[in-house]
């Protein structure tokens, strides 16, 4: 299958729900168990723990760094490298990295989050990506339902769930249907 599923979420998790580490890891594990590739912003918090969960389950993940090199990633941005199977050094700082990472994925899952996560969410909406929102995880994820009330384009591609396993499966189904539409 090898769909690429981005996990976007808070790098700093103190405002997230109490079980944020467990939820983040479970999202990563389910992506791995489903034979998909996890994509993330190669940072701490939710992206880190989802990548760790993916790795624990024998999966493969790709981190998109805001830095231009491993040295810059570690020394300037103070970001981890240990759980990422492949690192793409974008050299585009956070906002540029967000766009490159989001566009590279087939779908995006939002877990908790802050402003960077909101940026990745809006990029996913603009790029017409399927988006999964893990409700109850806190932060941006729990604010999105109110943000998209009304007749905004793209809201039909948003899936909500409180269970990380169910949410990943719904995203895989949604990506599969989209891929069927464009089969060449």
What does this structure look like?
- This protein is of the alpha/beta class.
- The protein has one domain: 3-Layer(aba) Sandwich (Rossmann fold), CATH 3.40.50.450.
- It is 46% helix and 18% strand.
- It is built from seven helices and seven strands.
Helix content: 40-55%
What characterizes the major β-sheet? Answer: 7 strands, parallel
Q: How is the largest sheet built, in terms of strand order?
A: 4-3-2-1-5-6-7
Number of strands: 7
Gyration radius (Cα, Å) is 15 Å
* Termini Cα gap: 16 Å
Structural class: alpha/beta
For the record, the CATH class is Alpha Beta
CATH architecture: 3-Layer(aba) Sandwich
Along the chain, the helix and strand elements come as: EHEHEHEHEHEHEH
Give the CATH topology: Rossmann fold
Q: How many domains make up the coordinates?
A: 1
Number of helices: 7
Global geometry: globular
Mean of residue pLDDT? 95
Uncertain stretches: none
Which percent band covers the strand fraction? 15-25%
